[in-house]
């Protein structure tokens, strides 16, 4: 019961009661405790409990090990998870599909390519845990994140030869990888093959295609990707074309945006908006990008973008794409300039949060944000004690605004 609610204090109370009564926990109890500690977010205690269990002479089963791997993965304790895998191999502890795939998913989440390849090869030579569709999908995700399109394509070919069923997630990972590598013809080939195999493109795959459109520099490539997207979501293609037409008024854009977003699954709405903003930025439609950011905020796609207190005003761009983050920074700096010009009260500290991410390939947003800060000559600097956070003082912001104002306006005081 305490485990289901993640109540650590309750878990500890029961354990103490057992110890006081001389009741020795068995494997079922330890498994329940480990799952509960995972829900409570206590990886250190889970590790100590596991070591205590092993020291007591109990041999972990698949459920024990899977629970602990999930805890390590959630906490991004990759080294601990891989050390546990080595212990499993040395001690001959049981390994099953779920355990292997949990480890592969963890490697995908944090970008451990070589470690994942080792796991995958282990599965191939094992008697009872040959890679399944989920295993292959995890590897496609790993190669896609690492930008290794050749290995991803070879894996795709291997799946076809072995008759491993390709799922929509695997297609999405491979298409994303090929799109980043600008291998558009290969992308179209994989998309068409996936559709022929009966895969129905979902919103995540459509978002992937939309992100590739934002990356394309050549019109021919754009049209090839849009032709794929046309098969999956023709309404979305219509919106892409609409945002690039000068005659499109804000009211027309608003109505169409609301309709498309309303027909989109909740988890894909923000990525769609991010990609649309990126498309506008890459084609120098900056005003349209700002309109889309406004609409995204209006329809609740960017909750917590701004947080303002008496002491601090923060901008959180961790859920934004690079183009959307640039747009949000420009919008914010424009707002701050108006506050200074109107002599309105401002907090002492300003902060912009890009995050650092647990994935080894996830530093793109922070680096791109830093470059845009420099381009705008904005008064932000990386915080010494808060990773992925850019900070500025009120004095910095006021001086920045005044330096960009004509001298006559900068010296005037509002009446």
From TrEMBL:
This protein's record includes keyword Secreted: no
Keywords: Repeat
Biological processes, Gene Ontology terms: positive regulation of translation
Gene3D superfamilies: Tetratricopeptide repeat domain (1.25.40.10)
GO cellular component, one term: chloroplast stroma
Ranges of the PPR repeats in the UniProt entry: 26-60, 61-95, 96-130, 132-166
Any one GO MF annotation of this record: mRNA binding
Origin superkingdom: Eukaryota
A Pfam family per the record: PPR_2
Keyword Repeat part of the UniProt annotation: yes
Domain Smr: from-to ranges: 315-398
PROSITE patterns for the chain: PPR, SMR
Family membership: Belongs to the PPR family. P subfamily.
Listed name of the protein: Pentatricopeptide (PPR) repeat-containing protein
């Amino acid at each position: 019961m305490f485990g289901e609610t993640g109540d650590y204090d309750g878990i500890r109370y029961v354990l103490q009661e057992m110890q006081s009564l001389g009741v020795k926990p068995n494997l079922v109890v330890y498994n329940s405790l480990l799952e509960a500690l995972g829900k409570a977010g206590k990886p250190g205690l889970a590790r100590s409990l596991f070591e205590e269990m092993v020291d007591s002479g109990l041999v972990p089963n698949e459920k024990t090990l899977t629970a602990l791997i999930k805890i390590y993965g959630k906490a991004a304790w990759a080294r601990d998870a891989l050390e546990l895998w080595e212990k499993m191999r040395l001690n001959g502890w049981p390994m099953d599909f779920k355990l292997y795939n949990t480890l592969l998913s963890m490697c995908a989440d944090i970008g451990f390519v070589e470690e994942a390849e080792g796991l995958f090869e282990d599965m191939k030579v094992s008697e009872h845990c040959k890679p399944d569709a989920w295993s292959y999908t995890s590897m496609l995700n790993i190669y896609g994140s690492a930008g290794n399109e050749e290995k991803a394509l070879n894996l795709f070919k291997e799946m076809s030869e072995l008759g491993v069923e390709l799922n929509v997630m695997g297609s999405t990972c491979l298409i994303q990888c090929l799109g980043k590598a600008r291998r558009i013809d290969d992308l179209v080939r994989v998309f068409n093959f996936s559709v022929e195999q009966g895969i129905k493109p979902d919103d995540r795959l459509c978002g992937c295609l939309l992100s590739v459109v934002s990356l394309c520099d050549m019109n021919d490539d754009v049209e090839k990707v849009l032709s794929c997207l046309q098969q999956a979501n023709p309404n979305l293609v219509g919106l892409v074309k609409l945002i690039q037409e000068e005659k499109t008024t804000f009211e027309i854009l608003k109505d169409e945006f609301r309709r498309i977003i309303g027909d989109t699954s909740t988890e894909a709405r923000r990525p769609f908006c991010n990609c649309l903003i990126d498309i506008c930025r890459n084609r120098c439609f900056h005003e349209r990008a700002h309109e889309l950011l406004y609409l995204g905020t209006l329809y609740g796609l960017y909750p917590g973008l701004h947080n303002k207190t008496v002491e601090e005003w923060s901008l959180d761009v961790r859920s934004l794409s690079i183009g959307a983050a640039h747009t949000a920074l420009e919008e914010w700096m424009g707002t701050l300039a108006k506050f200074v010009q109107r002599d309105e009260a401002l907090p002492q500290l300003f902060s912009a949060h890009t995050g650092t991410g647990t994935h080894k390939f996830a530093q793109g947003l922070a680096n791109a944000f830093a470059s845009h800060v420099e381009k705008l000559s904005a008064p932000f600097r990386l915080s010494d004690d808060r990773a992925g956070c850019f900070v500025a003082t009120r004095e910095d912001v006021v001086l920045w605004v005044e330096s960009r104002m004509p001298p006559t306006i900068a010296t005037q005081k509002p009446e």
